[in-house]
Amino acid sequence: MPTIELTPAERRDLRARAHSLRPVVTIADNGLSAGVIAELRRSLQAHELIKVRVQGAERAQRESLFVTLCETLGAAPVQHIGNILIIWRPREDEAPAPKPAPAPGNPATAKSAAAFAAAARRAALARATTSQKRNETRRERFPATGQAPYSRAARSRAAPRGR
Contact, 133 vs 139, CB < 8 A? Predict the structure, then answer.
């Protein structure tokens, strides 16, 4: 696969985007195995821009590895700094899965709307029941007024305190 050529402006933008990324693949003593290449392909398809960490290699070996990676994957070399390689490749278009045609009247929406309405009714009933139980408890505890003698409502009716 041929490598992708980037303009300096594109390369600068990609380096800026890659700054906050963490390496997704580490290449160590075994080098470029089939598993590493497969993982790099999956990562490029998912993220487009990835960082690769290379361990235990000298600068010249990392440079040749960088070129080999980009040629193998059909990607663009963005940056090689220290033991980090930054690679970019646009996502490959996948054939979208065929979507089933919605049934007439779209019953999925009707089912969702009915479920939403039922949930709203249950929530309103629960609020009403809780409020009713609270009021009954107050009436049992304070039969004269239905409120605690020192409740907020009772304090507001009392004469204001002077300060």
Answer: no
- Nearest CA to 23 out of 1, 45, 55 is that of 55
CA–CA separation, 35 and 22 (whole Å): 20
CB-based contact 4:65 (threshold 8 Å): no
Q: How far apart are CA 100 and CA 31, in angstroms?
A: 45
Report how far residue 79's alpha carbon sits from residue 14's, in angstroms, rounded to the nearest whole number: 9
Mean pLDDT within 90-119: 68
Taking the model in full, what pTM does it have? 0.56
Q: What is the mean pLDDT of residues 13-29?
A: 93
User: Cβ(102)–Cβ(108) under 8 Å?
Assistant: yes
Quote the tokens at residue 65.
């590895």
